[in-house]
Design a protein that fits this description.
By secondary structure, the protein is mostly helical. Helix 4 packs across helix 6.
């Protein structure tokens, strides 16, 4: 008798959006890899805003804290700014996975990446050393977690196959591409 608890598969809720859903629970690495240069710029601006604002306030309304009093405040503001900048960068990228913002580039990147994996015979979402139960639990806990990132930073670091999309499209596209390659036609 197995001591692994069996739970039913809980599908991801389909959220109506203006753009196609790429992944309801993308892996941390995919979110960072699919980020646009604009995401980096907005993240850098958000990170620099805190220290910049502190310097501006100090210029117009000096605190007169004395020697060595302002540096710790700037270090703390810098660390908080870096965290805020990273969260801003990450959230802009993950919202495109959910289909909440324009994501044409990411849809094409996703199709290209997944079709390449299908052609190589690799699992679409990577291999995992955890049990199916733990994978399901991780998926349920981090699905759409990017929407609540400002309250609880929760990222998906687990490879699993519960992403809220029909993966048949990747296999169909790979089949079309392989047929085109064998007949010498271009898609």
């Amino acid at each position: 008798m197995s001591n692994t608890e069996q739970r039913p598969y809980v599908p991801a809720k389909a959220v109506p959006t203006d753009y196609p859903l790429i992944d309801s629970d993308p892996h941390f690495k995919r979110v960072v890899a699919y980020a646009r240069p604009g995401d980096y710029a907005v993240g850098a601006a958000a990170a620099a805003a805190g220290p910049g604002l502190m310097l501006t306030w100090e210029k117009f309304a000096p605190s007169y804290v004395g020697k060595g009093g302002f540096a710790p405040i700037m270090r703390l503001t810098g660390v908080i700014g870096l965290g805020a900048g990273f969260f801003m960068f990450y959230q802009r990228s993950i919202l495109r996975f959910y289909g909440f913002t324009e994501n044409k580039r990411e849809v094409e990147m996703d199709m290209k990446e997944m079709v390449a994996k299908v052609k190589k015979g690799e699992p679409l979402y990577g291999t995992s050393t955890t049990t199916p139960y733990v994978q399901g639990m991780a998926a349920r806990n981090s699905r759409y977690s990017g929407l609540f990132l400002h309250v609880i930073p929760w990222f998906n670091f687990v490879n699993h196959n519960q992403h809220g999309v029909d993966t048949a499209k990747y296999y169909q596209q790979a089949e079309r591409e392989l047929d085109a390659e064998s007949t010498g036609k271009k898609l």
